Amino acid sequence: MPELGAAAIPAIEIISVDKTYPNGTHALQPVDLSVPEGEFVTLLGPSGCGKSTLLKMVAGLLAPSNGRILLWRKPVARVEESGHRLSFVFQEATLMPWARVQTNVRLPLDLARVPREQADARVHEALKMVGLTRFARALPGELSGGMQMRVSIARGLVTRPTLLLMDEPFGALDEISRHRLDGELLDLWRGNQLTVMFVTHSIYEAVYLSTRVVVMGARPGRVVDEVRVHEPYPRAASFRVSTAFAGYARRLQESLQRASADLPDPELA
Amino acid sequence: MTPAAFTSPATRATPRVPWLRRPDAQRVLWPALVAVVLLVLWQALVVGFDVQPFLVPSPWRVAVVMVADAGLLFGSLLTTLKITLFAFVCATLLGVLVAFAFVQSRVIETAFFPYAVLLQVTPIVAIAPLIIIWVRNPTASLVICATLVALFPIIANTTLGLRSVNPGLMSYFKLNRATRRQTLLRLRIPSALPYFFGGLRISSGLALIGAVVAEFVAGTGGTGTGLAYQILQAGYQLNIPRMFAALLLITLTGVLLFASMSILSRWALGSWHESEVHHD
After folding, report:
1. Which residues on A lie below 8 Å from B190 (Cβ)?
2. Are A110 and B171 in contact (CB < 8 Å)?
3. CA dist B113 → A152, B134, B206 (Å)
4. Complex ipTM
5. In this structure, is residue B134 part of a structural domain?
6. Residues of B with CB below 8 A from A98's CB?
7. How far is B76 from B142, CA to CA, in rounded Å?
8. Closest approach of chain A CAs to the CA of B279, in angstroms?
9. What is chain B's pLDDT, residue by residue, as a tens digit (280 residues)?
């Protein structure tokens, strides 16, 4: 099949992927999803809807039971051949507590045996992006939760990825830090031409960040809806309290409610 | 937050606090006070009730004997210390080696772990005579006994530590296609350090116990000149003050070993591990 130019290549193609765990749990019913390059797509749903499972399959941390996942038309294990690179940011900062911030950020480069001088320059660049250059020599334990998360994001950016996969990265933070990091993340996404797949259970975070929200339901895990957020970037803080925002939030709320309506014990009210 | 908040915990203590109020000083001060009170009480009771020195000697008398027999006692201390330290080093090296073998494969661990337990639960007093008969060199036989006693905590703790890796970090390493070697050096070993130091602290005391117990068993054979031998000899001669002096030296050695392991642990982990970071 001939290509119509680079822009036409989807960054992520999920082709009838499902997941059944060895213990028989159906984590995810077949999903089809295509994410064009440069999109900020959010997987939104209650716990147990398989959103993290799906993200981990995209990262190659889990293997799908059926179906295929392609990144820039390559299987996940051979994504480097496309000249693209993915980074994964976990829910926890997952930093090495014994290593200084700069060593933590340098870790993926060290593991890839990037020469030290080149690596240090990139660490500086990544720390600059998250505004933590002053704390390069601090230990993770000396930083606040929000700062630790920024270190984790810097570690994700230091390899200069084109695809950023984020599994509820700000879930453990207070709301103020969370809002600030949401804004910073959007700047990074726009500034570095990233494609982002973001997992959250917060409707408001999903609306504020995304170009598109994929709504998922639990038991069985499945995709139930897709909502496109037509709000230009950069998005002002006032977008969070606008009528348009409330409209999107209600739309997502209704989708989630419909998805859990037939459950005996709905997790979302 | 200001960068000033990121100095190391050691320099954070403000000099304005009088040293007597400092927690570090108090940790020494209070136990020392208890010791002084007990010693005074002991001296008073022995003198007051006119207790014979071959039953309970007064602290003063013990101190006098300690000075008078210094040559003898400290010579013995050196012997015991030599065996203890040698056994401790052997146990550490062997224990770490075994722990690494255990984490390499579940099969090795499953096959050999029961025997490590066997080693731990068999009383050293029961095997010491055998080892002393089998090993001709008396010093070597004592070192082997003490090593056997001190070995298990190092194996158990280091194995646990090498396995106690944050699963998130493990996934991160896997995601970045880290080799086995990289995961071991950059993740498993640093993660295991707090557990390893915990093992060291327990084993340092056990090495001393092992050395003394083994010498008790061997001492009657005329091999030892360590502190256990001094206690045995003093017992035969009803020289109870010297017995107390020897006992005191053993106890002090144990405390010193434990303290030095604690200092080593704090030096290695102080900046990052929860167990050593002092929260204000």
Report:
1. 96, 98-99
2. no
3. 38, 25, 20
4. 0.80
5. yes
6. 190, 193, 269, 271-273
7. 14
8. 11
9. 344 444 444 444 455 677 777 887 888 888 899 999 999 999 999 999 988 888 889 999 999 999 998 888 898 899 899 999 999 999 999 999 999 999 888 898 889 888 888 888 888 888 888 888 898 888 898 999 999 999 999 999 999 999 989 988 998 998 888 998 999 999 999 999 999 999 999 999 999 999 999 888 876 544 558 888 888 888 888 899 999 999 999 999 999 999 999 899 888 887 777 666 654 4
Q: Which residue of A has its CA nearest to B194?
A: A98
What CATH number has the domain bearing residue B93? 1.10.3720.10
Q: How much is the pTM?
A: 0.78
Tell which residue, A167, A126, A26, A118, has the closest CA to residue B175.
A167
Cβ-Cβ pairs closer than 8 A, A with B, add up to 53
Q: State which residues form the domain around B84.
A: 80-269
Which chain A residues are closer than 8 Å to B269 by Cβ?
98
Residue bearing tokens 């400092």: B22
Q: Which residues of B touch A97 (CB under 8 A)?
A: 272-273
Cα B61 from Cα B65, distance rounded (Å): 6
Q: Where are the domains of chain A?
A: 93-160
| Closest by Cβ to B3, choosing from A61, A98, A134 | A134
A111 to B272: CB separation less than 8 angstroms, yes or no = no
- Write b or e for each residue in B160-177: b if 16 or more Cβ atoms lie within 10 A of its Cβ, otherwise e: bbbeebeebbbbbbebbe
